[in-house]
Amino acid sequence: MLELVPLAEGVGTEIRGIDVTGDISDREFDRIHQAWMDTAVLLFRDQKMTPEQHIAFTRRFGEVFAYTRSQFNDVEYPEILLLSNLTRDGKPIGSAYSGRVWHTDGHYLTTPPVGSMLYAIEVPPVGGDTWYANMYAAYEALPQRVKDRIENLRVVISRVQSRPYNYPDRPAPTEQERAEWVDVSHPVVRRHDVTGRKTLYVGGNVPWRIEGMSEEESAPLVTFLQEFSVQPQFTYCHKWRPGDIVLWDNRSAMHRATYYDHVAHRRLLHRTTIAAGRPAAA
């Protein structure tokens, strides 16, 4: 029997009593989809999916696409991105570590993906957790004077600017990367296209520039919003178990990964990405 259980006070729902590879009725799926819209993150425990089933289940939530790191896409199923420290013929099959700062997937794209689904196959005994933050709740908790100040602002997302913050161990962007990595701007306050609720969209640890503001003015504002939005009352830390599936809404949630010992332990997760979602149930 389908059961919806809150994950934390501020974010997420665990979906119980269902096999995601089985026959999920439209009525049951509407309840699941609405919980995703309402709480930003869904957890399904003790599941087992083939790549085909993973892609098919993702498609119930919207259009599936691959947009990044093609070298780590599954060879037979390019819709699946491999997050792993495993190797094949001496070469890594996936990304061993990434996303260890707060972020929203694809925020450097003009039209970011609406969601991501991560399926755990092998996980380390310690570490490798994922934190999620509810951007609905963060926005709604802001003082009214701050809401008024940021209502019509736009934040500039720059991959060039983010490099030393997100990957300090990597060299500076090349001239080719600088040419290819075009800055994009997004509203600081986004209205969710399905729910109509307002969310914050200033993810990460980078003091992004606000259009029309000097760096001296925009950096403190962006930093305040970023730090405000990841307070404990807005967050949930997921400790992975094999068979877990987590689906998050990139329009209303941020996330970040935590460290694990990639030398001592094995890790393999499959991720799919949703380009455009289905509308909420009527």
TrEMBL record:
GO terms for cellular component: cytoplasm. One of its GO terms (biological process) is sulfur compound metabolic process. Keywords: Dioxygenase, Iron, Metal-binding, Oxidoreductase. It comes from the Bacteria. One of its GO terms (molecular function) is metal ion binding. Residues 6-273 form the TauD/TfdA-like domain. InterPro entries: AtsK-like, TauD-like_sf, TauD/TfdA-like. Belongs to the TfdA dioxygenase family. This is Taurine catabolism dioxygenase TauD.
